[in-house]
Amino acid sequence: MPPNPRVPNPFVTPFDDDESHQDAENLDHFGNSDSQPLVSRSSPEPHLSFTSQPIMIDQPDVDYAGGGSSAEPAAMAPPEELLAPTVASAGDRVIYLNEPLRNDQAKYLHNRISTTKYNPLTFLPKFFKEQFSKYANVFFLLTAIIQQIPDVSPLNKFTTIIPLSIVLAASAVKEVYEDWKRHSSDDETNNRIAKALRGSSFEPVKWKDIKVGDILRVENSDFFAADLVILSSSEPDAICYIETSNLDGETNLKVKQGIQQTSEVMTAEQAATLTGYIRSEPPNNSLYTYSGLINLNGRDYPLDPTQLLLRGAQLRNTPWIYAVVVNTGHETKLMRNATATPIKRTAVEQMTNRQILILFVLLMAMSIICSIGTLVRTLKDPFEKNVINLDESGAPVEDVPGALKRFGLNIMTFVILFNNLIPISLVMTMEVVKSFHAMLIGSDLDMYYAEADSPAVARMSSLVEELGQIEYIFSDKTGTLTCNKMEFRMCSIAGKAYADIVPEDKKVRVDERGVESGYHTFQRMLENVNSDTTGNVIREFFTLLSVCHTVIPETQDDNSIVYQASSPDEGALVKGASELGYKFVVRRPKSVTVSVNGVNLEFEVLAICEFNSTRKRMSAVIRGPDGKIKLYTKGADTVILERLRQNNPYVEPTLAHLEEYANEGLRTLCLAMREIPEEEYNRWSKLQEKASTLLVNRQDELDKVAELIEKDLVLLGATAIEDKLQDDVPDTIHTLQQAGIKVWVLTGDRQETAINIGYSCKLLNEEMSLIVCNESNEDKTKKFLEKQLIAIKNRGGGGFGNTLSPPKPPFFTRMKDFILNNQNLEMDGELEPLALIIDGRTLDFALNKECEMAFLELACLCKAVICCRVSPLQKALVVKLVKKHRDSLLLAIGDGANDVSMIQAAHVGVGISGQEGLQAARAADFALGQFRYLRKLLLVHGSWSYTRLSKLILYSFYKNITLYMMQFWFALDNGFSGQTLFESWILSAYNVIITVFAPVIIGVFDQYINARMLDKYPQLYLTGQRGQFFNVRIFWGWTLNAILHSLLLYYMSAAAWGDSAVSNTGRVGSIWLFGSGIAYMSEIFAVNLKAALVTDLWTQFAVLAYFGAMVFWLGAYPLYVVVVPPTGMSEELLGTAGPLYSSAVFWWTIILLPVLVLLRDFAWKFYKRTWHPESYHIIQEIQKYNIPDYRPRMEWFRKAVHKVRMIQRMKRNRGYAFSQNESGTANLVRKYDTTRRKPRG
């Protein structure tokens, strides 16, 4: 007996199943009963040893009566050990029906979920680990410890530990608050109510109390509390509809079906009498696969994904179902796909950390230099002997061993003296500013989605500056770019075009040759039914739409009809036909009823030839009320046109209309029919019946039988459906591309659908050459990728390492050319824009180590990338591949749980928090109501946050380096004694009181360009991508400037003060008058004037912060030296205010010295703006003086040159988009009888 096939790998996308469509040899073996029937590849296997890895199964094959998922499996006698298992085999879980005590013995996980980052036990370890991963905090902790050593610190021992404690406490409060919000969300979910079987009735139970093995009653619109296996429902044959928008963002309904053996369980009493068990696969993260078996009355029946209902999905349009819980809590497939919230570090923070390390090295160098100076002075020139009286023993002040012993302590002394070279308040200031940025994002009315009452939300305020440096966007399609709402917009019938809304310039007109062109209204179409020669074609057209489908009509309490369709396209077509007089009202197993203008007509459904990705069409054989048999077919134009009979009169005008629809980005289908003689139908139906009973290659044989009848068709026309994009999606994508951002779409949709939407949303355009990669194995994939790379390089595209970033003119030159001449910023030259289209199966091969670099190189050379039929894991792998090998910041945006892994893998994750996709929004760093808001989030808020944070960091380092380098210059003058120039407590007040507001105001309110200009000139976003506001060169430029300013401030203050200024009373000034008075005050004035010099937007807060700080300290100092010294603090400053404020030298110094120090900065700014301006300098001038922009709106010349190529490519790429489910739906739907009363359960 041959072994069973391998268990499908849950990590491989389930969408690609081309192997099931292999061509059959011929039709001759339909009646060959000698051939041994084998189990179909698509048949579920009941006896599987469930593991997450593929294994070979050494168990006997199982034969089925019918082999399809809807056919009843033949009962089989299971092995003795499976009849009453006591312990599950390795990896399996055995779930007993109505035996909670036995299930409790297995100790399955509870159903509570927790997405919090901390708990009471882990908070402190995790918090301190995260905080002390920041080098600044580590440094200040070490400094605070050193300060506690007696006779080492020249400053008060609390001057570091108190500010550090304040910083950590503020961060702790922020972390607790954010985690509390997650905890509240978890509580809301855990306390939802479900109905569980308790005894012989269903009782309300909280979600957190649901256990594995419980039987639940789920009612319409309820969410599933756990992973369930459906037993029965109110619908025929245990069918139910579910919506998975919380999982994958798709709003179209999906059909699930319980097995036949449990479909008759209609009451709680019947459910309570069920006995048996379910052997289920172990918990895993594969959303689209499931294997199991259920044992009833000693017989096993297979379970597959058709019976599985996932936690997070919602029951729709089904009054009730009964289902058994198989996975709970964090063992559900949804939660297995959720990962722990990653700790993300921004690029700016990482670079700041690196510069702090370098500054620490500089600080240590300064400390060592000063300690060496102290050592040399002590050994070579012990001036203490001359100024300090020796003790009675006459012992020397220092001998050589003592001096060397003091060397290490002196290093620590100078480390403390210079410690705030690294600003202690920087981390807290950044946290405060980022929180303000998050508030500004949340309060922006331009990003408020009123329809869903959904504002923009910044869930991770620590990442706001990353928004200004994004280079790649990875987007889901359904629910993110599109609304997944189909609308019947246009149609072509008998060569005439009709539309629901006809613009003035497209109304029907007749040219001089008498040829009619333009669009008629739908109203005119209804009139043509009886008054035009095309009336009969119109009737057949809408008859086809109303009978050739798998839609189910649901009559509501108000007698209105809601159409339930697994394909949104079909739902839109049936609804459109209904609104135009052909109302589909009843479905029975063998017929459908259509109300035509109020008259009910019954059509007998003789056969359905289902849609699949190979056929690209669907056909129905219908016997009409007149007794005639007709074949109605709809599908892609490429497959319909080749099956038409000769001399079809409507082909040419229909093709012209199809091109127009494709140009509008609409989803198109061709409709055709033919009348079938009774004898031909009888012969064909016998072949079709034989093919339907085969167990080998059944679907392939059914396809070949359908080919026999789908011929000699008469073209009726075409439909055009709008897959409604979210508002402003095309404009948003086009603007983001102008900003230098590459957009990749990762979707589970079919290739044709994805390409169609790519054109609709302007991700793709007619100028692009499409590289379509659909290969069957790894070797072919590698060869294809390498071949395309060679072709691109031969055309001048270059390679990954060099010409991916070719030499370019200076940025300002390109910016000026773009503004004035609308030239492309990337300067692509003659290289034609490319787009890569790759399917999920090929992507699996492309992501292997042998192919991944070729794939990445090719993808990065393309302007757009679309990955179709991808699984959630593949989405994350694509993001991680780019993240690993490209020095770029990535953003991922999606709306479903299948996007969570991609969102968390990217540097920045954005979730759509509108009507669907709450799972993604909760896991994301930012949440938006619609995709279009991404434009302002990145171009405006992102740019502002990046420039503000950059300027804040640079200024914070500047002001501290300026102050503490003055200590270094003073050390050179005081013989390296370790004496501080500034009194300890006013030194501590420098960062936390006196200069705290200037960086905050810069970080919150400064705008280098306003929102309107940033949106108008998206090319400015390139400044953030290239790090023009914060990089190593700029950081050390500011650092050297601060060192220069400290040098000038110290020595010019000393020169003005003299060796020792004498007051009018004849008293000599002390070090505190010079240091804490004139030098300190001058430095405060200088750094605040520097803040004023770098400010781009002046507000009342800026004036108050900069000049208010100077006035504040000027008035606070005399009050401080009067009030504080009597308390025992700052006693050195007692009595210094009078002599200081009465000195003319003091006033002239604090007024003139800061201005003189900043003259160089002002001159450099003037030179830079006048002779070597940056791009944003030009826009600032345009903004300030409101200069009009005369750049042309269209590139007419370029458009004319490429016109022919555009039209040809449009024809070549025009296909179809038909989102119907693969084969299998028709069999389920044809069991429906909408006239039958549904059981109440």
UniProtKB/TrEMBL annotation:
<dbReference type="GO" id="GO:0016887">
    <property type="term" value="F:ATP hydrolysis activity"/>
</dbReference>
<dbReference type="Pfam" id="PF13246">
    <property type="entry name" value="Cation_ATPase"/>
</dbReference>
<feature type="transmembrane region" description="Helical">
    <location>
        <begin position="356"/>
        <end position="376"/>
    </location>
</feature>
<dbReference type="GO" id="GO:0005524">
    <property type="term" value="F:ATP binding"/>
</dbReference>
<dbReference type="InterPro" id="IPR018303">
    <property type="entry name" value="ATPase_P-typ_P_site"/>
</dbReference>
<feature type="transmembrane region" description="Helical">
    <location>
        <begin position="1030"/>
        <end position="1051"/>
    </location>
</feature>
<feature type="transmembrane region" description="Helical">
    <location>
        <begin position="407"/>
        <end position="429"/>
    </location>
</feature>
<dbReference type="InterPro" id="IPR059000">
    <property type="entry name" value="ATPase_P-type_domA"/>
</dbReference>
<feature type="binding site">
    <location>
        <position position="570"/>
    </location>
    <ligand>
        <name>ATP</name>
    </ligand>
</feature>
<keyword id="KW-1003">Cell membrane</keyword>
<keyword id="KW-0460">Magnesium</keyword>
<keyword id="KW-0812">Transmembrane</keyword>
<feature type="binding site">
    <location>
        <position position="899"/>
    </location>
    <ligand>
        <name>Mg(2+)</name>
    </ligand>
</feature>
<feature type="binding site">
    <location>
        <position position="869"/>
    </location>
    <ligand>
        <name>ATP</name>
    </ligand>
</feature>
<protein>
    <recommendedName>
        <fullName>Phospholipid-transporting ATPase</fullName>
        <ecNumber>7.6.2.1</ecNumber>
    </recommendedName>
</protein>
<comment type="similarity">
    <text>Belongs to the cation transport ATPase (P-type) (TC 3.A.3) family. Type IV subfamily.</text>
</comment>
<keyword id="KW-0597">Phosphoprotein</keyword>
<dbReference type="GO" id="GO:0006892">
    <property type="term" value="P:post-Golgi vesicle-mediated transport"/>
</dbReference>
<feature type="compositionally biased region" description="Polar residues">
    <location>
        <begin position="32"/>
        <end position="51"/>
    </location>
</feature>
<dbReference type="InterPro" id="IPR008250">
    <property type="entry name" value="ATPase_P-typ_transduc_dom_A_sf"/>
</dbReference>
<feature type="transmembrane region" description="Helical">
    <location>
        <begin position="984"/>
        <end position="1009"/>
    </location>
</feature>
<feature type="binding site">
    <location>
        <position position="476"/>
    </location>
    <ligand>
        <name>Mg(2+)</name>
    </ligand>
</feature>
<feature type="domain" description="P-type ATPase A">
    <location>
        <begin position="190"/>
        <end position="284"/>
    </location>
</feature>
<dbReference type="GO" id="GO:0032456">
    <property type="term" value="P:endocytic recycling"/>
</dbReference>
<feature type="binding site">
    <location>
        <position position="667"/>
    </location>
    <ligand>
        <name>ATP</name>
    </ligand>
</feature>
<dbReference type="GO" id="GO:0045332">
    <property type="term" value="P:phospholipid translocation"/>
</dbReference>
<feature type="binding site">
    <location>
        <position position="611"/>
    </location>
    <ligand>
        <name>ATP</name>
    </ligand>
</feature>
<dbReference type="Pfam" id="PF16209">
    <property type="entry name" value="PhoLip_ATPase_N"/>
</dbReference>
<feature type="binding site">
    <location>
        <position position="749"/>
    </location>
    <ligand>
        <name>ATP</name>
    </ligand>
</feature>
<dbReference type="InterPro" id="IPR023299">
    <property type="entry name" value="ATPase_P-typ_cyto_dom_N"/>
</dbReference>
<feature type="binding site">
    <location>
        <position position="634"/>
    </location>
    <ligand>
        <name>ATP</name>
    </ligand>
</feature>
<feature type="binding site">
    <location>
        <position position="748"/>
    </location>
    <ligand>
        <name>ATP</name>
    </ligand>
</feature>
<feature type="transmembrane region" description="Helical">
    <location>
        <begin position="952"/>
        <end position="972"/>
    </location>
</feature>
<keyword id="KW-0479">Metal-binding</keyword>
<feature type="transmembrane region" description="Helical">
    <location>
        <begin position="1140"/>
        <end position="1159"/>
    </location>
</feature>
<feature type="binding site">
    <location>
        <position position="476"/>
    </location>
    <ligand>
        <name>ATP</name>
    </ligand>
</feature>
<feature type="active site" description="4-aspartylphosphate intermediate">
    <location>
        <position position="476"/>
    </location>
</feature>
<feature type="region of interest" description="Disordered">
    <location>
        <begin position="1"/>
        <end position="51"/>
    </location>
</feature>
<dbReference type="GO" id="GO:0140326">
    <property type="term" value="F:ATPase-coupled intramembrane lipid transporter activity"/>
</dbReference>
<feature type="binding site">
    <location>
        <position position="478"/>
    </location>
    <ligand>
        <name>ATP</name>
    </ligand>
</feature>
<dbReference type="InterPro" id="IPR036412">
    <property type="entry name" value="HAD-like_sf"/>
</dbReference>
<feature type="binding site">
    <location>
        <position position="899"/>
    </location>
    <ligand>
        <name>ATP</name>
    </ligand>
</feature>
